[in-house]
Amino acid sequence: MRPRTPIKPKRRWLPRWKMPWPFRRDPHALSGPPSTMWADSRQMEWGVVGKHNAPLRWSIAGLVLGILICLVAFAPASWLARTVDEATEGHLLLADTRGSIWSGSALLVLTGGRGSRDSSALPGRIEWNMGVSGTALALRLRQACCLNGEVLLLLRPGLGTASVSLPAGSQGWVARWPASWLSGLGTPWNTLQLGGSVRLSATNLKIDWAQGRWRQSGQLDLDFLNLSSRVSTVDPLGSYRFSVIGDSAGAGVSRMVLSTQEGALLLSGEGTFSAGKARFLGEANAAPDREAALNNLLNIIGRRQGARSVISIG
What GO CC annotations are associated with the protein (predicted)? Predict the structure, then answer.
């Protein structure tokens, strides 16, 4: 007898709504080729991994944010010193810094620039405190030897821009330094060895920075009071004013003026300051009957042309 061939059972096709979930298609999904079990399993795997990684991502983001806040809140004062050094090309330094950029102190040092051996520090430390005031940063400066009480500067940083201004209540003279401090700038100041004092005054002063250029509004005055020099027997030489007058036309050009207030040494000159470059032309003369006593000084100040000495910058 021949063996009976087993009869294969008929395969039953279930409607999709009765099929197990991984093989069921969303009736509202967009039309397209049916997804396979392999594709569905990958979607399930990535969904599970994403859910498990979400807390980790938030933890990392919180850690990074916390580090950034700490860096800003506790940034050392040496960061501010580095900024001042770069902005002045090494001519003004904050030495022996203490504290943070928000509250700290340092010694103010003038130098002849990077690589120069000349330097001169002011007596006493300059102290600062910085905080938020409206849309600006309020920088308060104190220095017993040289500042007129507490000096307030308003700093307004922006995207590619910045501004520094003196509020209306801070007008008048701001600082007063011994003229001997200028010897730190090198030649010719270290040769002149000036005596007397230098007083800084400001009127409606505001300095804006944008696109790599500075623009000044208001006026800045440097008064050289009762100057003397070791290369001259005339004491005092006189008193002088050097003014930087801001641009009122919006062209970004400030005007510089040097004038004599009184004295045996007569100084005068004019120039401009624009795009970080200064151009100045002035001259020095001796008052009548003082030519012999001021001859050596006139040779050092500038280029001699007869009885006068020409001062040229830029």
Answer: plasma membrane; type II protein secretion system complex
